[in-house]
Design a protein that fits this description.
By secondary structure, the chain is mainly beta. 11% of the residues lie in helices and 56% in strands. The chain is built from 2 helices and 8 strands. An 8-stranded antiparallel β-barrel has the order 1-2-3-4-5-6-7-8. It is elongated, with a radius of gyration of 15 Å.
Length: 150
């Protein structure tokens, strides 16, 4: 229940990403180290291309860890003097040989909210199992991660 509450707070706090009108000084690529369930310690990054118009806040992300890999596409923005921002992303997660609190070889799709301040980010949201090598009772999971971008 606590995980669900944390995820709800993150998703609600990510909503201003769609409404933010000011332009932040932001990096094009944001390397990140994260710890999460089920990927465990992972490395990855976020790409913030500078497109004209509504696509200007597009964010592409990905991480790879011992427990799995995840890719995401979403809407938001990170940057400024304090490296702050919010985003919301659709994600695809594939577990590998040593996932934390999940079975290996499973595929999930989900939605995650993200909040970042001072290079530290919290990311979380629900994910639904869409397939896998073996049968699993893990139909719905709450993904949560803590990361440091540099």
């Amino acid at each position: 229940m606590n995980s669900l509450l944390i995820v709800a707070v993150i998703l609600v706090s990510a909503w201003p990403a769609a409404a933010a009108a000011e332009e932040l000084d932001r990096p094009f690529f944001w390397p990140t180290v994260r710890y999460s369930r089920p990927e465990r310690l992972s490395v990855g990054g976020a790409l913030q291309p500078k497109f004209p118009g509504p696509l200007n806040k597009l964010i592409l992300s990905g991480t790879v860890g011992r427990g799995g890999y995840k890719a995401g596409v979403g809407y938001g923005q990170f940057g400024g003097d304090l490296m702050v921002g919010t985003a919301i992303q659709a994600t695809v997660l594939r577990t590998m040989w040593s996932p934390r609190r999940a079975e290996p070889g499973q595929t999930f799709i989900g939605i995650e909210g993200q909040f970042m301040a001072a290079n530290i980010s919290l990311k979380g949201g629900p994910a639904f199992r869409i397939g896998g090598r073996t049968a699993s009772d893990d139909r719905l999971r709450i993904n949560f991660s803590v990361g440091y971008g540099f």
